[in-house]
C-alpha cells in the first residue's frame, strides 16, 4: 500500500461520529480534527481508549486522521476506537477475530433516554408531598 492510498471507516457512539482514515506510515501518528491525539484528549484514559485497537495484534505503523463531530469526550474516544477497528479489519481481515472478541467492532447501542413530560429527567420524578 502506498502512502497516498488510505482506508476510510466510520465509527459511532452515542451522538459522536468519527470519520477515520488510515494509511501505512513509518511511525504511528494519530491526528483528530487537525490536532494531535495528546492535545485533543486530555486524559491518558481517553487516549488509551481511542487507540486500543492498535495494541491488539496489529503489526505495522499507521497514520490515522479522524474528523469527529458531536457527543462528549468519552463518546468521541469510543467512536474513534470503533472507526479505527473497522478500518483495520478492512486493511487486514485476519484482525477481525481479535477485535471482535474485544468488542470493538460492535456499535455500542446505549444512548441517553428521552425526557418524559411530568418528570424532571427520563425517570426522575418531582418530590412527592403528602399534603
From TrEMBL:
GO terms for cellular component: cytoplasm; small ribosomal subunit. Residues 112-131 have a biased composition (Basic residues). InterPro entries: Ribosomal_Su5_D2-typ_SF (IPR020568), Ribosomal_uS9 (IPR000754), Ribosomal_uS9_bac/plastid (IPR023035), Ribosomal_uS9_CS (IPR020574), Ribsml_uS5_D2-typ_fold_subgr (IPR014721). Pfam families: Ribosomal_S9. Residues 103-131 are annotated as: Disordered. Keywords: Ribonucleoprotein, Ribosomal protein. GO terms for molecular function: RNA binding; structural constituent of ribosome. GO terms for biological process: translation. Belongs to the universal ribosomal protein uS9 family. This is Small ribosomal subunit protein uS9. It comes from Candidatus Kaiserbacteria bacterium RIFCSPHIGHO2_01_FULL_49_13.
Amino acid at each position: 500500500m502506498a502512502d497516498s492510498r488510505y482506508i476510510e471507516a466510520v465509527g459511532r457512539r452515542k451522538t459522536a461520529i468519527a470519520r477515520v482514515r488510515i494509511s501505512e506510515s513509518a511511525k504511528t501518528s494519530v491526528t483528530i480534527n487537525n490536532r494531535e491525539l495528546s492535545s485533543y484528549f486530555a486524559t491518558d484514559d481517553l487516549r488509551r481508549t481511542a487507540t486500543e485497537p492498535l495494541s491488539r495484534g496489529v503489526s505495522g505503523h499507521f497514520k490515522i486522521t479522524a474528523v469527529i463531530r458531536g457527543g462528549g469526550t468519552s463518546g468521541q474516544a469510543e467512536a474513534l476506537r470503533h472507526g479505527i477497528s473497522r478500518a483495520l479489519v478492512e486493511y487486514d481481515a485476519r484482525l477481525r477475530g481479535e477485535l471482535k472478541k474485544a468488542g470493538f467492532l460492535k456499535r455500542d447501542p446505549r444512548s441517553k433516554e428521552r425526557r418524559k413530560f411530568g418528570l424532571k429527567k427520563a425517570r426522575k420524578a418531582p418530590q412527592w408531598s403528602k399534603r
